[in-house]
Amino acid sequence: MIFEAKDLKIYYRTKKGFVKAVDRISLTVKKGETVGLVGESGCGKSTLGQGLLKILPPKTFYGGSMKIEGEELISFSENKMREIRGKKIGMIFQDPMTSLNPIMRIEKLFYETLKTHEPEITEEEARERTAKVLEKVGIEPERMQEYSFQFSGGMRQRVMIALALVLNPILVIADEPTTSLDVIVQAQIMELLNELRQEYEMSMILITHDLGVVAEMADKICVMYAGQIVEEAINEKIYYEPKHPYTKLLLKSIPNTNIDDLELNYIPGSPPDLLKPPRGCRFAPRCPYKMEICETQEPKTFAVDNTHVKCWLYSEVKK
Ligand code: SF4
Ligand code: MG
Question: Which chain regions cross the lipid bilayer (predicted)?
């Protein structure tokens, strides 16, 4: 197993108490597997992505377990995490404009990144590796002399992908990698990611609010709601046989446009306050199938015909 989270908790400490942004999540990623993490904004998916790298505010609480190749990340010091970041777990962020230093030449940017993890690397070696990886993402190597502000949005995202790949990570976390791009460029970037993950046999966690985005790429999809995974199944199952009421609504609401979080308008109500989540099912206030038990007891996760679903509707099926 490349990555394994068990009963993982990531809570933000606030003056009013803990915000349970990720609450008792279990998740596995195998070699070469792409796992889609899908949900509305505020469901905890980005917290989870950043939590795996421990780049959240210093006082964030981590509980349970998250392991990369069997190594427990929760107990790692900041120094040890610095070795992991980039080298073992790469990250592709949503907005390359803010994550790329605009006043550094691309060449220097790659050199610095490589040098952090491979202090003995020469500038010449770094240049060669940079040229190779830029070519892979469809950028002419000569452009490494330029600054990131000289690139278009799509090109910047390619640079980000190349930067994540240059260290050969075993797991890449891509958080809304195409959200800020126009539709055509989005499709190109997704296609590129798809090719690269196959070529590099890379494992990937693909985070998105848009079920449409992960349709072609993810092997497995985890639907998140209010800090928890409510449904997990292989790709096709989620689309053709969704089980959790939230997944069903999410599928119905796939917009034919790419406006961020448009689906919020389609599912009535809003996600609960994670400072004080509902006692029973967190989706109960919005659920059309709500039963009595839903308001008082948190649903267990039931295994129903190769799907894992956290909903009382399936408690009979299992017996
Ligand atoms: Fe709806 Fe109850 Fe299932 Fe929650 S447990 S999703 S409230 S039916
Ligand atoms: Mg987000």
Answer: none
Structurally, the chain folds into a number of domains equal to 1
- Give the mutation target among 228, 248, 291, 295 for probing the ligand 1 site: most ligand atoms within 8 A of CB: 291
pLDDT at 122 over 70: yes
Who lines ligand 1 at CB under 6 A?
245, 281, 283-284, 287, 289-291, 294, 299, 311-313
**ipTM (interface predicted TM):** 0.96
Print the domain residue range for 75.
Answer: 3-88+169-318
Cα of 283 to ligand 1 centre, how many Å? 6
Q: What share of the chain is helix, strand, coil (3-state, %, to 5)?
A: 40, 25, 40
Residue 228 lies in a domain: yes
Question: Which of these, 215, 227, 85, 235, lies nearest to 163 by C-alpha position?
Answer: 85
Q: Can you give the pLDDT at residue 98?
A: 65
Rounded to whole angstroms, the Cα distance separating 171 from 166 reads 13
- Domain of 76, CATH number, reads 3.40.50.300
Q: Is residue 270 part of a domain?
A: yes
- In this prediction, residue 270 carries a pLDDT of 83
**CA–CA separation, 69 and 229 (whole Å):** 22
| pLDDT higher at 314 or 261 | 314
Residue nearest to ligand 1 atom 5, measured at CA? 311
What's the CA gap between 229 and 70, in Å, rounded?
22
Whole-number pLDDT of residue 303: 94
Pocket test for ligand 1, best of 224, 230, 283 (most atoms within 8 A of CB): 283
* Inside any domain, residue 135: no
Residue pLDDT, tens place only, 221-236: 999 999 999 999 998 8
